[in-house]
Each structure stands twice: as structure tokens, then as C-alpha cells.
Design goal:
Length: 202
């Protein structure tokens, strides 16, 4: 990094934005296999928070690859850089007072730990979206598993590349056994328990 680059602190602080919004800013990081339901769940949480007048945004793996990370491939180094960039974006969004819902396979525990360091542990809620590979493959919403089995995609997480199951996630969601509503309620309970938004019985 150039020595000429200096971080400029905003005159309007995060605490002020949180106060105006009526809630704290935080990152909920959804990790799991392709097809496990990360994006579906992230958007369901956003819908619920939107109804509560919260300032939110969803960062989705495919969407980020269309712009911010369009120059990156899917090798190990590029995957790590992809997650690092997203972590930095999340840090900026936290400062703006937004509740950020980040839905990324993010298979490497090391990469997820790096994001936790960028954001800080207190602002990072890891949501492990647990779903058996065979169930994810049956869903195959994007048709990627079919392409993997045909040999068109190499090094695919969960099939030909590893996925590091989180050791101590803040939330574990079982999308094979739970309905979206049940999963949503589990996440909202944690949000209320941490006083991110005003408590409400669900």
C-alpha cells in the first residue's frame, strides 16, 4: 500500500447513523454449500427487517461476481481475494449503519476468519446453512451440479473441492428439516438477543 494513502474519518459517525436508524449495524454471514438456501434465507431475513423499518442490504455471491469481483476466477487464491474484498465492503457498510446480509459459499474457514478480523468479531454473526450435499444436488436451482457431474466444472465445493464446516457458528440452520419461517425465526431470535434491533417476541 502506498504511503500516500491516508484513511479519512467521516464526520458523521457510525453511532450517529445507528441512532438515526433505530438499530445497530452488523453483518450476518451466511455460509454453506451451493443450493443449501443461503440466498433464499438472506432475502427472507431482509424482508422481515424491512418490515421493521431497518436499513439493510444483501450481498450475493453471483451478484458480486458480476461487478466487484468480475476479474477473479475460482482458484484458491482468487477465492480468497473474492472473500477479502467482500469483507472490506461489509466493513464500509457497517460504518454506514446498514445491517448487511452476506450470502457466500465461502468454503475456507481461514477466509471466513479473515473476514471476521476485518469486520471485528462483535460485528460478525456467522450463520451456517447446513444441508446435505445430496439434497443440495437435488435442488440444483442453477444447474451447476449437473455440469459438475458432466465434468464441465472443476474444483466445485462439496464435490471436488473441500468445504470447511464452521467450528463454532453463531447460528446453525438446517434447511433440510426446517421451513423458511422456522429458520427465519431462529435468526431473528439471535438478532433480538443481541439487541441489534428493539426486542420483540416471536
Amino acid at each position: 500500500m502506498s504511503k500516500n494513502i491516508v484513511w479519512h474519518n467521516a464526520t458523521v459517525r457510525r453511532k450517529q447513523r445507528n441512532s438515526n436508524n433505530g438499530h445497530k449495524s452488523v453483518v450476518l454471514w451466511f455460509t454453506g454449500l451451493s443450493g443449501s438456501g443461503k440466498s433464499t434465507l438472506a432475502h427472507a431475513v431482509e424482508e422481515e427487517l424491512h418490515q421493521l423499518n431497518c436499513q439493510t442490504t444483501v450481498l450475493d455471491g453471483d451478484n458480486v461476481r458480476h461487478g466487484l469481483c468480475r476479474d477473479l476466477g475460482f482458484g484458491e487464491e482468487d477465492r480468497t481475494e473474492n472473500i477479502r474484498r467482500i469483507g472490506e465492503v461489509c466493513r464500509l457498510l457497517i460504518d454506514t449503519g446498514v445491517i448487511t446480509l452476506a450470502a457466500f459459499i465461502s468454503p475456507s474457514s481461514h477466509d471466513r476468519d479473515q473476514v471476521r478480523k476485518i469486520i471485528t468479531k462483535k460485528d460478525f454473526i456467522e450463520v451456517y446453512v447446513n444441508c446435505p450435499l445430496e439434497v443440495c444436488e437435488k435442488r440444483d436451482v442453477k444447474g451447476v451440479y449437473k455440469r459438475v457431474r458432466l465434468g464441465e466444472i472443476k474444483e466445485f465445493t462439496g464435490v471436488s473441492a473441500p468445504y470447511d464446516i464452521p467450528d463454532k457458528p453463531d447460528i446453525v440452520i438446517d434447511t433440510e428439516a426446517e421451513t423458511i419461517e422456522e429458520s427465519l425465526n431462529s435468526i431473528m431470535r439471535v438478532i433480538y438477543a443481541r439487541n441489534i434491533i428493539q426486542k420483540k417476541k416471536i
